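Figure 6 in text form: structure in, sequence out.
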């Protein structure tokens, strides 16, 4: 049991004492720690700068998280001076690749293909380095939670927590579902979700105009907890605005051989 722990065991126990999904809290904390170290200590490191250029900066979540870090503006400015120059160069190449509308025939086709490839460079950029770090930490937290869920301190802390959000529970089971303790995690999380459902029901019922009974603190906060239970904490899982959807894939006509 002790071998399954890593330094984040204590952080998981601590996160279980906070509102919401403990895994979301841990991932957010790791992301903030990563950015703090980078912006305060590694801004001029060549490997760090190379990784940031490859990803064209950070994702939306980690970009705006920088604004929450004390004394980080100078480090951010150094990084983004370089990145602004990078996107300016890429935009200029897009114009050059188009031939300014003067090309015709095969040359226009060639230059048009070059432009499309340059547009694709942004879509195919490397993964945000802060996200890569967070994903590794997230995997370790979830593995530890499954492996140690029946271990004294963590078991007691998780029993008092709001439980994992749905995205993190299913992520934990994806790689660890065959472990004996996975069932314990599912049962304990299910109990948290059933309680949440009851509190939502009570909150809804008390909206009846004939009701004179006040909301409990748990009932008043049930809707906010339900949002996080289904989608995870703000920023952790991003959005699907620019992601391909199953519906979109179905609408794409198949090419006939």
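Output sequence:
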């Amino acid at each position: 049991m002790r071998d399954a722990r890593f330094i984040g065991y204590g952080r998981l126990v601590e996160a279980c004492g906070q509102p919401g999904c403990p895994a979301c809290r841990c991932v957010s904390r790791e992301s903030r720690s990563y950015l703090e170290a980078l912006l305060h200590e590694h801004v001029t490191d060549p490997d760090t700068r190379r990784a940031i250029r490859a990803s064209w900066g950070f994702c939306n979540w980690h970009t705006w998280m920088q604004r929450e870090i004390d004394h980080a503006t100078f480090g951010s400015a150094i990084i983004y001076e370089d990145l602004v120059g990078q996107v300016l160069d890429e935009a200029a190449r897009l114009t050059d690749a188009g031939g300014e509308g003067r090309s015709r025939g095969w040359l226009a086709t060639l230059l048009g293909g070059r432009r499309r490839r340059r547009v694709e460079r942004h879509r195919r950029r490397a993964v945000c380095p802060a996200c890569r770090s967070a994903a590794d930490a997230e995997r370790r937290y979830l593995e530890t939670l499954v492996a140690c869920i029946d271990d004294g301190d963590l078991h007691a802390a998780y029993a008092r927590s709001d439980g994992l959000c749905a995205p993190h529970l299913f992520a934990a089971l994806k790689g660890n579902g065959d472990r004996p303790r996975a069932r314990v995690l599912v049962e304990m999380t299910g109990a948290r979700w059933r309680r949440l459902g009851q509190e939502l029901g009570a909150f809804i019922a008390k909206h009846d105009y004939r009701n004179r009974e006040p909301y409990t603190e748990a009932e008043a906060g049930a809707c906010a907890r339900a949002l996080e239970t289904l989608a995870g904490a703000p920023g952790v899982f991003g959005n699907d605005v620019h992601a391909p959807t199953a519906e979109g894939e179905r609408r794409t006509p198949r090419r006939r051989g």
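Caption detail: Residues 134-231 form one domain.
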